[in-house]
Design goal:
The chain has about 325 residues and is α+β, with helices and mostly antiparallel strands. The protein folds into two domains: about 50-60 and about 205-325, no CATH class; about 75-200, Sandwich (Jelly Rolls), CATH 2.60.120.380. The chain contains two helices and 20 strands. Strand 19 and strand 20 form a beta hairpin. The chain starts with a helix and ends in a 6-residue tail after the last strand.
């Protein structure tokens, strides 16, 4: 009798052990399956993710300040845009340069005005030497002018004086035939670029106001979720002149008003594309879907207009970078 009971106890213990082992294996397999599923989802999300990081450039207020003649600065290598039409018969620009030096103006014209009226072809460019007044009706002195009819090209002038801190060369864009026309005519949009000497230091006239991140992939992200945003990393690597590079990790801000060394992401309903407001966060508001654009703002402590690189690391490990010459550091 005693041996039978012992045998039953032994069998019971063995069965219990088998059951425990089976359940442990089952739990282990479930955990492994869950881990594999999470890894597969992670890999799938990473493979389906692609981003394009770019900069929103804005000009400093000094870039649009006019001189005593009402003319804006024109810097080598930086494009200026305008439109000659009734109500704006002429634009003028000032620039620096020595005497007896040749300079070029590269131009491009859109001969359809914003009112969809085809403009006449001819546009006039007049050079005014230092000390010569620029008015709505007067011509450039010294026969230094060019009338152009085509949509793109380059024209050359030669300076006849030397500029200084308070006295500049000037260029007027207009239509000579409107000198006696009180209303003016449609001449369409234009852009000009000065080629004269060394290019200006871009950080003195423009800066990066914000960064843009465009979703080029198929994955969507809850970018207004604090849990998600806490897994986004933002670094700025600065390159000070004659000093070692410096890397700073920024802290996420819960406010659009940034403190030092902070960043914030917004997903605007509309966004400006080539000067036109386009729909952005329309499908699934607050979810960063394919083809939508995020705006990323930063603020650095003790920033001195150094150039550098913004580094953005997404929660799935994807890294994107964008170089900049200068940050507005709002």
């Amino acid at each position: 009798m005693g041996s039978s009971i012992s045998a039953l106890l032994i069998i019971s213990v063995l069965l219990t052990s088998v059951i425990v082992m089976f359940r442990s294996n089952q739990i282990g397999m479930n955990l492994l399956a869950e881990a594999n599923r999470n890894a597969a989802e992670y890999r799938s999300e990473k493979l389906d993710s692609a981003f394009e990081l770019s900069s929103e450039i804005t000009t400093l207020s000094s870039y649009n300040e006019v001189d005593a003649q009402g003319c804006k600065p024109l810097y080598t290598g930086i494009m200026r845009k305008g439109q000659i039409e009734p109500g704006n018969k002429w634009d003028c620009y000032w620039f620096d340069g020595p005497n007896a030096s040749s300079f070029d103006i590269d131009y491009f014209r859109n001969i359809v005005s914003t009112m969809n009226r085809t403009s006449l072809n001819q546009l006039s460019f007049d050079y005014y030497h230092v000390g010569s007044p620029v008015t709505e009706t007067n011509m450039g002195p010294d026969d230094n002018f060019e009338d152009v009819n085509d949509s793109a090209g380059s024209i050359s002038f030669t300076t006849t004086t030397t500029s200084d801190l308070n006295n500049k060369h000037h260029l007027k864009v207009w239509y000579f035939g409107d000198a006696s026309n009180p209303i003016g005519t449609h001449r369409g949009k234009y852009s000009i670029t000065l080629d004269f000497g060394d290019a200006v230091d871009l950080s003195t006239v423009q800066c990066v106001d914000k960064f843009r991140l465009k979703n080029l992939g198929q994955s969507s992200f809850p970018v207004e979720s604090p849990y998600f945003l806490d897994n986004v990393d933002v670094f700025v690597q600065l390159r000070p002149a004659n000093q070692p590079e410096a890397m700073t990790k920024l802290t996420r801000s819960d406010s659009n008003i940034l403190g030092n060394n902070e960043w914030v992401i917004t997903l605007p309903e509309t966004i400006s594309i080539n000067g036109t407001q386009e729909p952005n966060d329309v499908y699934e508001p607050s979810i960063f879907n394919s083809s939508e654009v995020l705006q990323l703002s930063t603020k650095l402590n003790n920033y001195n207009q150094e150039s550098g690189t913004l580094i953005l690391i997404w929660p799935n490990g994807l890294k994107t970078t964008e170089n900049f010459d200068s940050l507005c550091n709002n």
